[in-house]
Design goal:
The chain contains 3 helices and 3 strands. It is flat, with a radius of gyration of 14 Å. The protein has a 3-stranded parallel β-sheet, sandwiched between helices. By secondary structure, the protein is an alpha/beta fold. Helix content is about 40%, strand content about 25%.
């Protein structure tokens, strides 16, 4: 499984977007890919998207919380993608 971690502020989280913003849209597209692929199973899914955006965050905020946000969410052997917005 590939873990995708998305960091950013309110525009990343889509707080003012009725459809949830770009990160939520990406998560939905990848979830549909998982579900619609006949090789997909719940235990060997392809993508898991974690949206770790916080309203008002800037680069300094993200750097300060990066390690504590990531450590409990990662597992050995999984591919990881980090997106910063």
């Amino acid at each position: 499984m590939t873990m995708i971690f998305i960091f950013g502020a309110s525009t990343t989280a889509g707080y003012w977007d009725s459809e949830g913003g770009w990160a939520v849209r990406l998560k939905k597209v990848l979830l549909n890919k998982n579900i619609n692929d006949p090789k997909f199973t719940q235990t060997s899914g392809y993508f898991d998207v974690q949206i770790l955006a916080v309203d008002g965050n800037n680069t300094d905020h993200i750097l300060k919380r990066f390690e504590s946000d990531i450590k409990p969410r990662i597992a050995e052997g999984e591919e990881k993608i980090f997106i910063f917005s």
